[in-house]
Amino acid sequence: MASTSPAGTAAGLVDLLTARLGTSGVLTDPDVMAAYSRDRLPLAPSGTPLAVALPSSTEEVQDVVRTCADAGVPVVPRGAGSGLCGGANALDGCVVLALTRMNRIVEVDAANRVAVVEPGVINADLRQAVSAHDLFYPPDPASYDFCTLGGNLATNAGGLCCVKYGVTSDSVLGLDVVLADGSLLRTGRRTVKGVAGYDLTKLFVGSEGTLGVITRATLALRPLPQAPGTLVASFPDTADAGTAVTRIVGEGLVPSLMEIMDATTVRAVERHLGTDLGSGDGGGTLLLCQSDAGGEAASRELAALERVCDESGAALVHATTDPAEGGLLMQARRSVHPAIESMGAQHMIDDVCVPRTRIAELIDGCARISEEVGLRIVVNGHAGDGNMHPTVIYDGDDEFARARTAFDAICELGLSLGGTVSGEHGIGKFKQDLLARELGPVGLRVHRDIRRALDPHGVFNPGSMFE
Amino acid sequence: MASTSPAGTAAGLVDLLTARLGTSGVLTDPDVMAAYSRDRLPLAPSGTPLAVALPSSTEEVQDVVRTCADAGVPVVPRGAGSGLCGGANALDGCVVLALTRMNRIVEVDAANRVAVVEPGVINADLRQAVSAHDLFYPPDPASYDFCTLGGNLATNAGGLCCVKYGVTSDSVLGLDVVLADGSLLRTGRRTVKGVAGYDLTKLFVGSEGTLGVITRATLALRPLPQAPGTLVASFPDTADAGTAVTRIVGEGLVPSLMEIMDATTVRAVERHLGTDLGSGDGGGTLLLCQSDAGGEAASRELAALERVCDESGAALVHATTDPAEGGLLMQARRSVHPAIESMGAQHMIDDVCVPRTRIAELIDGCARISEEVGLRIVVNGHAGDGNMHPTVIYDGDDEFARARTAFDAICELGLSLGGTVSGEHGIGKFKQDLLARELGPVGLRVHRDIRRALDPHGVFNPGSMFE
Lengths: 467, 467
Description:
Chain A has helices at residues 10-21, 30-34, 58-71, 123-131, 149-155, 162-165, 200-204, 238-250, 263-273, 295-311, 323-334, 336-341, 359-373, 396-416, 432-454, and strands spanning 26-27, 51-53, 75-78, 95-98, 105-109, 114-117, 135-136, 172-178, 184-188, 213-220, 222-223, 229-235, 257-261, 285-291, 316-320, 346-349, 352-353, 377-378, 380-382, 387-388, 391-394. Chain A is α+β, with helices and mostly antiparallel strands. A seven-stranded antiparallel beta sheet of chain A has the order 15-12-14-13-19-20-17, with helices on both faces. A five-stranded antiparallel beta sheet of chain A has the order 5-6-10-8-9. In chain A, strands 1-2-4-3 form a four-stranded mixed beta sheet.
């Protein structure tokens, strides 16, 4: 991109942005900017931005984008920085566009089960706000208490809800998007159904800040489910846990949550929480399920899950409709990340998704890769949709290269099992090569063509996702 | 498009196609071609094709597309021609690419709840095939017993299932698509979750044959629901029926079907079937609901629906779990189209979708429009998702202009109520102006940019959807 405008110098650009957003809306202090320069994946490259812009309105976003486009300066949009693919990481000399100030829940239309939000709203804040209307916004990434909806939209975030309620894009009806020339595009609609024109809404969801800046979203809500019943099953053998998952899917059961943790994960959680999850009783791989169907339907669903786990070789199965006990079991799942962190070393969280019948093969394959590279790999994830998070534990620069080898080998394994290199975290600035492998040359060409059509001068997040 | 190749003459092109597809794969008889030249909307313009190509494989589709692209001849893809927007209507001098021979169900992977199909498979055939595995393919457009899945994908077809199970795009995991240069694009994946790259799958679904030719689809299946219980409620006043719909949505009820018929529709169906649907007992607007939750959950759901209808002013409410009785009530809904046809005149089926709280206003507005233009308008549709099909009854060329005025006025009314000009039928060659209104200039520009990026020489269905 050529610098041809009065904003061609760095100082000139900052002045222009400050004139538009005010001094509080433009950050240039290096220490402050550092906090806006990367997400929670410590591995992807990140640069030093020219400035961080904090717009308060769609019009200010348009101003920032136009100013940067004129100056030939790339724009990297971001929310809370909870991402795990480096997608929001700064580029040298870019303007980071942080949407955190645009945090209004504009509207909750309970009668039509629709909410309109700005991108800086925290996921948990929306969940809380709509629950007052007995409504439910399903997407629940692990970071739901601090991640923003804008980031969820940019990465098409998932979570624990997906087995029954789908991913973010399944809850999006329409978007306001600022395009690379600063113009404002409105996609989709407020109605739950509609086919007028291309589905641009779902093109922008998951585009990781490479096609435009989402400044408003119309979201579909669901009735608040019943309080869930919970079941935990411990399997001595990973293959048996895999069989249970296959049979649960095959028998037409749709639990509202179905998580799996391999034996290494279970032991880490047991140590972290000081609790017993069955690994001492011959158990190993843990399956955690919930049913939010309510009443007799939930009892029937839990009983069916219990039967399948028993028949598949579980050493221990326990079901409960007591919310406190269910909460404790869920705490075990929610403690996986801190438990891994307490293992004392660094880690790389992978994010492959495989057909649900292949989960046991993935876990076994990760054990093989672990032996080959000589690093521990803990495997856990969303068994209900096949989205697994094998996590490579490593220590310092010495082991980084081997960890990366393992990380990539896990993605290759996922592809070889008919899966994808990203179930929910995205590509960002760390998995570009793997994306190119998955897409193939025609797929990559079409991606480039679409990106060029929408952003011909490469304003948004250049080099992220794909070159 | 310029004709520069040896296929530049019509005869040359037919020879080239015949060399590739064989004589049985290329039709040129004018009478035979006429059957492939339009869909079931009699109003949209249609031309005379140069030839109809009937490929049997993806490779043959690629051959046809390359040959036509070289010759500068547009390609209009089509399935069974059940569409209602003229999207599959031929252009003068085009090649109609009929996918009906590619009708294999390639695979049903019951363990992963996935089917892989060719585009020419009849919707009902897939439903039947997967039901043998206790699985369910939800999309059920009115034409499900003769429409093809390729057409369903091209239009993002809906049906009666959408209130609970969504539209076609909600059941699609991945596609094989032949692009305008003949290359083969694979989108999406087999896993139920995945965010690697842009969501190209959903960009092609609903693109009405303007971006590529879908030659294979990987579809997500669901567990077969329980046999449904059925409820019918008759309301003297349309507004009361609207209130019932609003309250059903507002109370968090999710029936598996919720259809509405205004008094004119009910009387037409009563005449057609020789049955009594309550219009003689002070009833008028009919609401038809089902619950497929099964067992006690279904009973609870039906009881809640009954209570809401009673409280909203229904003159008559009747619920049944008897499948035969439920089937008779569903027959009334399925008879709406033949009943309208038996009214003896021509008709234009509109397809607006409005927020579910605005359905009564739409019905009342249609009554106003009916008075203004002096033509009968019957209103019925999918109350559960707000997708309504006001149908203008007219007779001969004399009344056509007034019918078109009413048709457009209904779309304007839908837009003014916060809705869309197409809930499920599409834009095709009849609603381009209305699409442009709904998209606005920026939206239209982005549509053009994307289409140009994928089909720079305008091979696919030029002029359809938008110029």
